[in-house]
């Protein structure tokens, strides 16, 4: 199985190593441990039995109970609406943003950064007894074209949830990221560019109950150059050079 920063190729490996989260943070650890979704890894990644973590001692456990619905999918949709609403109304210049920290810290300051909101989504799901994990997406044929979502386990299988846009992929059953990658017809009702994120995917299991590093960071020079540059879908900082 392919694991770590380079699962999407050399150029994306350079980009991910320059991720703006603190070097020793849980966010980099999750990148280092992600496993590429491909035929060779499917049996390992999609085991038939998934057990929820005990989250009762987590700082957000009591807060998360307000989202509990009459059934699991309703709980997921309640959390999706809450998180995507935060992202929708977040209006802070990139240069002034903060990244990482605990999920409580992320919620207090707000964010529209997909990796941070995905981690929040995972924790709120886990606190409601719904197994969940981080999914990294990338389009290897286009530079700087990535996104981070979540797979939640309900109704007997994994289904993708996007906590920035509020999407819950379900077509009579939850749709996991591999199914979405294989059949782009599932994106017919979504914005045209959105499906391109699902060209390649990697999964990382996040355990919020472990002793993780939650150091907060600001934008690094790599991302300042990226956000202020006009890359046009091309690598502009030599990421693809041998």
Describe the structure in your own words.
The protein has about 240 residues and is an alpha+beta fold. The protein has a single domain (about 5-230), classed as C8orf32 fold (Roll). It is about 30% helix and about 15% strand. A hairpin with a 4-residue loop joins β5 and β6 (about 165-170). The two termini are about 25 Å apart.
**CATH architecture heading:** Roll
Mean of all residue-level pLDDT scores: 96
Structural class: alpha+beta
Strand content: 5-15%
The percentage helix is: 25-40%
Instruction: Estimate the global geometry from the Cα principal axes.
Output: globular
Distance between the termini: 24 Å
Sequence of strands across the biggest β-sheet? 1-7-3-4-5-6
Low-pLDDT ranges: none
Order of helices and strands: HHEHHHEHHEEEEHEEH
What's the total number of strands? 8
Question: CATH class, please?
Answer: Alpha Beta
Itemize the secondary structure elements and their pairings.
Elements: H1 10-17, H2 26-33, E1 35-36, H3 42-45, H4 61-64, H5 72-89, E2 99-100, H6 103-109, H7 114-127, E3 132-138, E4 146-154, E5 157-162, E6 167-168, H8 177-182, E7 200-204, E8 216-217, H9 221-228
Antiparallel strand pairs: 1-7, 2-8, 3-4, 3-7, 4-5, 5-6
């Amino acid at each position: 199985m392919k694991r770590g920063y380079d699962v999407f190729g050399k150029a994306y490996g350079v980009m991910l190593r320059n991720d703006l989260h603190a070097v020793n943070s849980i966010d980099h650890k999750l990148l280092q441990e992600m496993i590429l979704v491909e035929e060779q890894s499917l049996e390992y990644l999609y085991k038939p039995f998934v057990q929820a973590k005990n989250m009762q001692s987590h700082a957000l456990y009591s807060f998360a109970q307000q989202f509990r619905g009459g059934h699991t999918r309703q709980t997921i949709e309640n959390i999706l609406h809450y998180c995507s609403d935060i992202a929708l109304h977040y209006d802070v210049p990139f240069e002034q943003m903060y990244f990482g920290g605990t999920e409580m810290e992320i919620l207090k300051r707000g964010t529209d950064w997909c990796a941070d909101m995905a981690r929040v989504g995972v924790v709120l799901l886990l606190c409601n007894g719904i197994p969940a994990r981080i999914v990294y997406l990338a389009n290897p044929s286009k530079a700087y074209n990535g996104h981070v979502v979540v797979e939640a386990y309900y109704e007997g299988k994994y289904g993708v949830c996007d906590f920035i846009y509020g999407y819950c992929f379900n077509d009579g059953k939850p749709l996991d990221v591999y199914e979405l990658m294989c059949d782009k017809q599932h994106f017919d009702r979504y914005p045209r560019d959105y499906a391109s994120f699902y060209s390649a995917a990697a999964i990382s299991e996040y355990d919020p109950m472990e002793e993780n590093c939650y150091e907060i960071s600001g934008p690094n020079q790599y991302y300042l150059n990226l956000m202020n540059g006009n890359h046009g879908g091309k690598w502009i900082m030599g990421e693809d050079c041998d």
